[in-house]
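Duplicate of #3305? Posting structure anyway:
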């Protein structure tokens, strides 16, 4: 993991997040200062990383899912908007399959 983080910085990343040490969604939201990023790209293709990418994107942002879940348990992402505030709302378009995350307010 360390080598990949080093490469990211070498190629111009302004910030890196070590998901083995930090909650990646909370860390990305904190770093952005706006509750999430404008663009997130998910390329691993696991259920967990797809959900993290969606949750790390602010309302109105764009989440691009490149990775593909394999196996019987793979589901399409579906995120509902929280009615209390945009700060706890992921910024993704809905698709059938995954139950919505609980509000983090």
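Output from current build:
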């Amino acid at each position: 993991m360390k080598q990949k983080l080093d490469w990211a910085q070498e190629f111009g990343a302004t910030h890196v997040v070590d998901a083995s040490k930090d909650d990646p969604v909370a860390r990305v939201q904190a770093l952005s200062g706006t509750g999430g990023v404008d663009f997130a790209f998910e390329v691993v293709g696991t259920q967990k990383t797809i959900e993290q990418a969606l949750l790390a994107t602010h309302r109105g942002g764009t989440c691009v899912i490149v990775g593909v879940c394999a196996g019987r348990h793979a589901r399409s992402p579906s995120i509902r908007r929280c009615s209390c505030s945009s700060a706890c709302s992921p910024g993704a378009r809905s698709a059938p399959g995954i139950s919505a995350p609980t509000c983090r307010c």
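Confirmed duplicate; merging threads. Confidence is low (pLDDT under 50) at residues 83-105. The two ends are 31 Å apart (CA to CA).
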